[in-house]
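Section 5.1 Outputs to date
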Amino acid sequence: AEAGLDYAGVEISLPTLHEVYLPPFETAFAAGAGAVMSAFHELNGVPATGNGWLLTDLLRRRLGFAGFVVADYTADAELVAHGVAEDERDAARIAFLAGVEMSMQSGLYLRHLPDLVAAGEVPLALVDAAVRRVLAAKAALGLFADPYRGTDPERERLVLADPATLALARQAARRSAVLLKNEGNLLPLPRAGQRIALIGPFGDDPANLFGPWSIFADPERAVTVAQGLRAAMADPALLLVEPGSDVEAPIQAGIDRAVAAADAADLVILAIGESAAMSAEAQSRVEIVVPPAQQDLAEAVAATGRPVVVLLKTGRALALSGAVLDARAILVTWFLGSEEGHAVADLLFGDHAPSGRLPVSFPRFSGQQPFYYSRKPTGRPERPGDSAFKARFRETPNRARFPFGHGLTYGRVRYEDLRVEPAHLPWDGTLTVTATLRNLGNRPAEEVAQLYVRDRVAKLTRPVRLLKAFSRATVPASGTAEIRFTLRRQDLEYVGPDLLPTVEPGLFDLWVAPDAESGLQARFELLA
């Protein structure tokens, strides 16, 4: 959306739509997804909810989708505000004829479809087809036999309290956290002997563990970071807890109390970032930074000279700066759910090693956005030491602060001995890529090796790198592990000018890497 603003217009070229945006939908359909929601925004000048090309020609005829389409909340009524419908009756007509079978909230179909059918403006056959699709979905879900699908409060209580459910939530939380930084191997922390100051609005906060749109979350079931740390520490009395500030505003004497706690501690854990509400719908931000009140808190705490571990709660990539960026360790915790406190303690004290990787690039500054790893090269790419008339910013390199795919673990992994066999990929053959991961640390390491390629010459410009595969490996302390990938010609195809998959013989660059901006590089040739 333009300017990253919710509900704003979207302009996407057809090749990009087909190559980047549609494949996840196609994968979901292949896995059995039975419903699609029409978006609020317009696409290339036509609101999605009134876009017959999108919802019928493309979705049904080309992609073969057989389920039903539901309007997002009042998206059908909003066709009036978009300026493509005269009134709500006209909006109901446009949305239904475009391919929206279910009106979620507005009531437009209930009020206007009977009259539209009677007036001959909407064919009855289309209404029958829509009804069949909705009824077929309800029948497939078993709702006619059991309208509430076995839902009852007692069953819910038993499921949510089941040890297996809690263990899975804890594991999912551990695997989702991403370690951005760990200077001097500050982490993992000793379980005993250190006085720890837990500072920040999210240190003992059960309300912001679940993230946006967790409508039925129960904070009373949540384990806060403070509770998780106390449960894991040999002496819980060594944990000092101070909020320091609210999420977006200072609190009276908050920084003074936080600084006093830091002075009395050996180490500071700074639990800061965004609230769940800040990452929800209609919460676009002009500056994607740590809120100023919390940044001030971080600066004051860092001035004490105590080592700082940042627990960064966020629903988006943030441009980090100052004391937050300079912290010895940074662990992105996102919104980890009801077991967040236990999961964070598992990672901080080393019962488990971090293994998550960034699904988005963290920019250096907000003004770099939109910033993504698979960007196009331009005719004047930025090169080291060559700054004149190049695609560059005056203030910063055109690179991420923390790139897509980045994430550290306990242990230091070095990539070695990249092998590409054969050096020429036959048109209908395969190519094998192998590399050695060497752990230079004294703890086992959980590494996620990533395979990227770049097509050197094509009919349409190609990204500077494109992720093709990844492989998770446990590398023993002071040991090695081999990772292996297989490439075929089909893996190199892209959507051409005719919107069909294509690829040309020629040279390709290849990287096996821990992220989208580093790694071992090789080259191979695709033969005709």
